[in-house]
Amino acid sequence: MLDLTTKDVLERKALRVNPCKTCQPAGAMFAALGVHSCMPHSHGSQGCCSYHRTVLSRHFKEPAIASSSSFTEGASVFGGRSNLNTAVKNIFDMYAPDVIAVHTTCLSETIGDDLTSYITDLDLPEGKHVVHCNTPSYVGSHINGFSNMMMGFMNYLTRKSGALNGKTAIFPGWVNPGDIRELKRIAALMGVPATFFPDQSGVLDAPMTGTYAYYPEGGTTLDEIRGLGDSSGLIALGEIIGLAPAEMMKKKWKVPYALLPLPVGVAYTDNYLIALRNAATGEDNIRPPVPPELEAERGRLVDLMLDSGQYTYQKKAAIFGDPDVVIGLTSLCLEIGMIPRYVITGTPKEDFTRKIEALFAKYGMEGCTAKANADLFDLHQWIKNEPVDLLIGSSYGKQIARAEDIPFVRAGFPVLDRYGGPLLPIVGYGGGMHLIEKITGALMDRYDRDCADEDFEVVM
Amino acid sequence: MNDREKLLEKYAAKVYKNRKDHILQLAEGDEDPSIAANTRTIPGVMTARGCCYAGCKGVVVGPLKDVCVITHGPVGCGFYSWGTRRNKARPDEHAEKNFLPYCFSTDMQESDIVFGGEKKLEKAIEEAMQLFSPACIMICSTCPIGLIGDDVQAVAQRTEEKYGIKAIGYSCEGYKGVSQSAGHHIANNGLMRYVIGTGDKAPAKTFSVNILGEYNIGGDGWEEERILKRCGIEVVTMFTGDASYAALKSAHLAQLNLVMCHRSINYIAEMMKTKYGTDWLKVNFVGVGATCQSLREIAAYFNDAALSARVEEVIADELSAICGDMEYYKSRLAGKTAGIFSGGSRSHHYQTLLRDLGMNTVIAGYEFAHRDDYEGRGVIPQIKEDADSKNIETITVERDLEQYRAFYSEDELAALCAEIEIDTYAGMICDMDAGDVIVDDYNALETDELIRTVKPDIFFSGIKDKFSVQKAGVSSRQIHSYDYSGPYSGFRGAVNFGRDVTMSLFCNAWSYVTPPWKHEPTLVGSYGGR
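Structure tokens for the assembled complex are given below, as produced in the milestone run.
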């Protein structure tokens, strides 16, 4: 496996090998699927749409609907206006969504299609909407595409009426439906009425009922997106993915925000609870107590960390994936005494490196490497030079795990080769327990596999 | 109203006008059913189709294991086509290096789009040479490349001059043509022009073939090779499953081309016939009966008594090994109906395997086929070239005076053609029955509607449909990827397929879809004081 990868590191300037990111439109499509009764629409040639639907379906094991402008050579020369007009009419006729969420592709961006003017000129059916965002595939990564789609929706729909709606907006970032359910449960327990945006729970984990609907129960409603400007505050989770949409909320609608790391592990979940507690603080300035139920969950997680800590202490991990999930996973690994030897993301964001290095500093870690805009070939070469005990990341890590015989825990996006992951949280105290169960399980299974018969223990 | 009319009824006038020619319901006594195909998809209909790049890189050149295939463009296209197609390969004597677990991309950034990406591509090639020194580099273009005017052919030429390796540039931008099909054609042209005929490794055995349009999904090609080997027939190379640049070079030295996927590779079959005199047989190794028939036709082509006897021995032996399993699965599956949308011949091939299992295919179609895949090659002269197909280069080859060696004289061939069909394909429709529905370039609405109206027991297509069909309560399997199972071809593959279809239809969880309380009365109570 990966037999052509050698130890000798060559600094590459042009060749991307085994990327740890994909392009903006995939993120835009995923974000749009978190809006109720929405048809994501890819304005480009139809291969993009097919690829994005495929990767989303393979990760969630669910239908991922989206349509395409189906550019041909003619449209690429003369512009995509007529393709968009035809598409919009057909989508409303055939699939009857409430909103079509258009994102661009490298094709429509390169020819300079002016989506704003195309959409302004559309003759829309009563009560129907078309929104758009620009997602040039040659800028940033799928993470930017996700943020851009959120801002596209807000740009078209969100308004400030002048009266607060008593809700806190929560931007969960790029997480699985199981995570969103957990974040919602915690917010409800903390007594915070919230609007989650986007919200793929119910959409990308729709229950089996024997009938298929294009728009299952779930997703942020258009009314909720309209009302975001009237939110009393915003909690944006994921410091990288959440920054631009949070700034937009502050600048355009004067909604104050707390930008937090994705709540993975104890400390970051604590931050989420504190933010929720602040949001639940009324005019009397009295902070409500954290419900005993959540405090007990936290206690159980810390208890588990202390119980199992000897199996994770000073174990070296390599962690890769999208910036916010990697920041969360790194924090959790540090909490359980691991050494996050290599921490990378493919997304080109130097903020990521700074945040990971701050975590290293907080726990006194020296000699660990953090890198943004990196790829899995980098990571593999580093591991060849100095091995690790555990690899954490998306399915593409399985090649390295096999090549170097490293225990492997799947987390992040995309996980294409396992089932059930998107239903289970990694966020919150419960998510922490789930991750520690997976991490210790992987490490201890490896010990059991490799140890001598006389060292093979029934009790550990 | 028949099923076709029910489908079309949903459409507004313009879409109706377009789709009516792509949807066919066969009727008794219908002499020459005709279908529209290989035309533009209507924007917004939620087509299953992919793009030209997917056809070139994803389908045809991606599986070449010793080739460093660099996707020139932003990162996405390379990422999505990385390790996602199940075209299995292992290193062999032709190719020690296996590039298949890798993804190579120029990961173009905004400045590359503005100022041109050729420099970055050349730098990427330099880095690939330093890291991997491949014997062959292929460059696959994504949408922006043609628009900004990067000349990938020129870069390939400079690469050959600089490093003394083979380098091929493909202008397979996603927007070209109307589907993956354009990419197949572009890839075929490149392999024909630059690879086939440049090697001199002659086959060792008396009888030798290439298997064209076999991508070794789930190990299909290996099962076919196993059977052919038992018969004493050497497989020079597949196109392009488990294949290498090194092996493809000598493909012209095989005596006969077997064509599995007609759509994706028929150009090479035709051009090799013209240039090298190699005949081709449209074979089908999907299905027990079909595999037997294909083996017998191959033996008939070679017209050798010992080979024919050996083929019969192998068939008898293979059948005895699987007949118990096949009988069992047939007993579970007989009478069930299926819908199938796959590949560039598969929707045809799988009907024969389903028939072996006592099942009947009532819906079939393709994403990217042309009329000849449906109606047979006889229809080719009637196909009108449109603007989109004109944009895809058709290359003309001439007889290679040094390397041309026809197996038979024209008269001998004509005599043999009375017995087996050589150098032609009769298409899918001729094997289907009255009442069956055929849909070209099917979309999500049509799929969902067909599931409701025709109600097949199982539906075979791709990942984009799989879960919506399953959610509607109908068994659904991916027949592009075999749902990560396989092989499905040949004798052993037929058993695997029977097992998987049975598993899918009789999965215990189906009985839990409706909760028990849905059948309970809502009112709880007792009669008069009891």
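Chain A touches chain B through 81 residues (CB under 8 Å). Chain A has 17 helices and 14 strands. Further analysis is deferred to the final report.
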